[in-house]
Amino acid sequence: xxKALQSLLFYLITSACMIxxxxxxxxxxxxxxxxxxxxxxxxATILPNGLLQLTNKTALKTGHAFYKVxxxxxxxxxxxxxxxxxxxxxxxxIVPENGSLGQGMAFVVSPTPDLSYGGASSFLGFVNTRTNxxxxxxxxxxxxDTNGSAEADEKSGNHVGIDVNGIxxxxxxxxxxxxxxxxxxxxxxxxxxxxxxxxxxxxxxxKLNVTLAPVPTTKPGSPFLSxxxxxxxxLLSRTINISEIFMERMxxxxxxxxxxxxxxxYILGWSFKKGGKAESLDMSKFPNPPVSSPPSKSKSKSLxxxxxxISTIVLLLILGGAIYLYKKKKYAEVLEQWEKEYSPQxxxxxxxxxxxxxxxxxxxLGAGGFGKVYKGELPSGIQIAVKRVxxxxxxxxQQYVAEVAxxxxxxxxxxxxxxxxxxxxxxLLLVYDYMPNGSLDDYLFNTQNPKSLSLSQxxxxxxxxxxALLYLHEDWEQVVLHRDIKASNILLDANLNGKLGDFGLARxxxxxxxxxxTRVVGTIGYMAPELTAMGVATTWTDVYAFGAFMLxxxxxxxxxxxxxxxxxxxxxxxxxxxxxxxxxxxxxDSKLEGNFSAKExxxxxKLGMLCSQSNPENRPSMRQMIQYLExxxxxxxxxxxxxxxxxxxxxxxxxxxxxxxxxxxxxxxFSYDTVTVLFGGR
Length: 682
Hints:
- With 682 residues, the chain is α+β, with helices and mostly antiparallel strands.
- It has three domains: 23-285, Jelly Rolls (Sandwich), CATH 2.60.120.200; 337-433, Phosphorylase Kinase, domain 1 (2-Layer Sandwich), CATH 3.30.200.20; 440-678, Orthogonal Bundle (Transferase(Phosphotransferase), domain 1), CATH 1.10.510.10.
- Strand 14 and strand 15 (207-214) form a beta hairpin.
- It comes from Cardamine amara subsp. amara.
């Protein structure tokens, strides 16, 4: 009996310890962070007095501190509200460095404690240009921003914001706290060098509250108030469904960053609890943050070197002036008043010049009718492609830059991301994500350095481009016409995913707006017959170009090839003839050497011909194309009679007889550069 009681007692004690350990993972309280279970990176460090320091005076760096143990959310063992609710209270101090207020910091809930990829400056260290505003980022952040030069949605350079998956706040307000005695909100400067308390609470259903208050100071002889009562009204109260953001295991912690402006950011105490109210912090246990460094007021008291002669002074002044003028001209930009609203998308020429090592030839990725493209790397480590586009006139530049800014807001996994732009006299520079595998055109047609793609890989690329076009045509806030779909404008990432790029000819239209004919742009062989005849670009003309692109991919040859026999010169016509004669597979790229799925090849060829119908209304929409490519809908029967297809008109006029005919000689100097045809003298 005694042994049984001892066994039972041992079991109960062990179970209690395990339950206590599990509970401790969801609740903690820290004052001396040298004893905390934290993961640190970047500038983050723990000072000898136990103070947690996120950032220091080092420019353009980040610092992170996360609780090492993941918090279990969406637990099946508890109710939904219990599994998602949490509460945290912490005290922080942002100490200016030489008068600089710095960039700011954030409390972060992330699926990983490793945010070393986070960008400095306005990204606050928890996202970068690739992850910003992406739903698969799964990050909730409460930003304490001290820099007023950031995004347009921010109200000031001293504000608090609730961020979801990026740095654009879903709710924000100027930093302040509710004073119950006065019955009003009092402004609170975040970077004042003093300690500030913050409470962040989520009820597990839909309400997220953020409350601020200064740590009270006491007069000599006054009793010290160890625990401060939270203000009755929160600064921010936002309805938000955190179940759409959080994964089952999330990490909690802090992220800070510096830009060219720096500050020292400290955490003095931190308590957290999942499924209830976090323990109130005891302010008597807070370590004191270092005082702010005053702006340097040192002035030179005397000249260290006396210039021997006036001529030497003049020579130095002339030399310095020449160097200044040279650098000013070297990095000169064009910046007009109307461009200020696009400042988040604008990059300096100096930055791009250094990123590309001065646009050296060994950084050249390619060149075309619109300019040259160079590889570069930003200080944050992000690889970029910089396209230098020449322009001689300023007419229409304001509209074009507005459209460039709109392109920067397009977000789709199969679109090449436009990161920003820069303007100089006579040229425009566009900055894109770098695609390490170059263009699809290089894989299909480069004979000097041949590269191979299986038909399955090509099929995957086609589906990706189709998904991007569906987004542009139907899923974005405006209708976007690309107007130049072809293999050379499809870029491949490290995993050979196809991404539609080169939006130099793209146009944005409000839904339901009438589209007027002003000019025809595009590439011969990809332009729909109604486009060349009437000058009206629609989603149907993009579909026609996509059809020509699909035939190009599966056949491994361009829409018009002057080196082929007359009957094979026009790709659409040749595929139609082979289809009519029952030898459709003869058109498949010979470089595949028969190693392909006939079913996939037939589907691509028939869809390419379906998009090439001469009547625009007979062409499928991009939504239908996705259904066909995914196998969720049966492709309609098509006839291979050539009169039903929009055959490109490549003709040469006989001035003596007044007739026209297609000839090989007329294509002797044929080029696949993008062409522009003006209509009506406009």
